[in-house]
Specification:
Layout: E1 2-11, E2 14-20, E3 25-29, H1 36-48, E4 67-75, E5 79-87, E6 93-96, E7 99-101, E8 113-116, H2 128-142, H3 144-167, H4 174-218, E9 225-230, H5 241-254, H6 256-262, E10 273-278, E11 281-282, H7 283-286, H8 289-311, E12 316-320, H9 328-338, E13 343-347, E14 359-364, E15 367-370
Helix pairs in contact: 2-3, 3-4, 4-5, 4-8
The structure holds adenosine-5'-diphosphate and magnesium ion.
Length: 373
């Protein structure tokens, strides 16, 4: 996958910009609050349909503006153009090669990237929701069906939660309606958990290799990381889809009174987690901070490797201020791993020799200055 070019209008603090990227490492360079992350955010948004830091689309429009646009040109087997247009009070519009896209699942996965930001370094120690988000993002880019199921799941969950809340006052038609939503929820839960389970198994493979290589540089350890998807159904893995669905259904029906009391759905894939261990012990409790960082980096690198395995080519790596957060050995390793792929990264200062041939793009006050060197 190759990111050729991005054109922005009124996106965050960028009034208008057109930036071309080259093979290998591209560095967005500038001091704080100039718009480096904004640019990366725009590229990421053209990949996943949503920002990694804005809660609302309206935040993406430049202050005082009522519209904004992103146009991304990328090449997989051929050159393509993705356009996203935002206008105040309207649904955003997406076009790929001038064809209107109405479903997010038709857009996600066209331009594939792997994003590393400093928050990812706490993937191991962080809340389960962060690890679920990792899975959701990664799998959605590879399997449009996953995103379809996830979107349905979230809608059903909302409906079912509303029903549970209202049941505290009125139970007249409750039983029938809730069993309809439980059935629907269990159906999607089974699909999603199967995808997550098999993705987790793939991550584990690559993660073990990455972690072992990193340990060579950071201090030898023979401990082997493992990673298992922990479904709230506590099922043994590799059951068929129907069995998995029945397990979720049973959990939902057996705990209905508790759920009514809580006013929310207590079981399902929105409660699941990835269990990451090092030498058989829970990494979030027992691994050192350095080991946790190595594990988190391995997770992200594994995401790139799986994407390549599935699609035949590496995704574009987007790094937001990650290198400056890492110690020398981990930084060296990460650069070594990704420098022959396309990388677009932000930084305040360049301090490593490894960037010798990088394409440097200076960002100042929302404007791009291409340096001639
Ligand atoms: N919707 C917006 N309109 C205009 N400016 C914005 C908007 N959202 C954020 N900004 C500005 O963008 C700047 C931060 O840009 P950012 O890309 O995060 O900086 P950095 O170069 O440090 O990565 C801040 O000055 C912020 O005020
Ligand atoms: Mg930034």
């Amino acid at each position: 996958m190759f990111c050729n070019k991005i054109e922005l209008k009124n996106f965050r603090n960028i009034e208008e910009a057109s930036v071309e990227f080259t093979d290998g490492v591209n560095i967005l360079l500038g001091s704080n609050a100039q718009g480096k992350t904004n640019l990366l955010e725009a590229i990421y948004t053209a990949s996943t349909g949503k920002s990694f830091r804005a809660a609302k689309e309206a935040e993406l429009m430049r202050f005082g503006c009522d519209h904004a646009s992103i146009a991304l040109e990328f090449t997989d087997t051929r050159r393509q153009r993705m356009e996203i247009k935002y206008a105040a009070g309207k649904r955003r519009q997406i076009e790929i090669n001038q064809n209107k896209i109405t479903r997010l699942s038709d857009m996600v996965g066209r331009f594939r990237c792997v994003l590393f930001c400093p928050e990812h370094l706490s993937l191991i120690k962080g809340a389960p929701a962060e690890r679920r988000a990792f899975l959701d993002e990664a799998i959605s880019q590879l399997r449009p069906m996953y995103l379809v199921s996830l979107t349905k799941y979230e809608k059903i969950l909302k409906q079912r939660n509303t029903l549970l809340r209202n049941a505290q006052d009125d139970r007249s038609t409750f039983t029938e309606t809730v069993s309809y939503w439980s059935e629907a929820l269990a159906h999607e839960a089974a699909i999603l958990s199967r995808f997550r389970e098999s993705y987790a198994a793939q991550v584990q493979n690559f993660m073990q290799t990455c972690f072992a290589q990193m340990s060579e540089k950071t201090g030898k350890t023979d401990e082997v990381p493992t990673l298992v998807y922990k479904g709230s159904s506590e099922q043994e893995s590799y059951q068929d889809l129907n069995e998995t669905k029945e397990i979720y259904k049973r959990l939902l029906s057996q705990n209905l009174e508790r759920e009514i009391y809580a006013g929310t759905t207590l079981y399902g894939v929105h409660k699941d987690d990835l269990e990451i261990c090092l030498g058989g012990k829970a990494a979030r409790q027992f691994a050192s901070q350095g080991q946790q960082r190595s594990l988190a980096l391995s997770l992200k690198l594994a995401e790139g490797e799986i994407s390549r395995k599935e699609s035949g080519e590496y995704p574009v790596f987007l790094l937001d201020d990650v290198l400056s957060e890492l110690d020398f050995a981990r930084r060296e390793y990460l650069i070594e791993e990704i420098k022959d792929k396309q990388v677009i990264m932000t930084t305040c200062e360049i301090r490593d020799e490894a960037y010798g041939s990088a394409n440097i793009i200076r960002v100042r006050d929302g404007r791009i200055e291409r340096t001639e060197e």
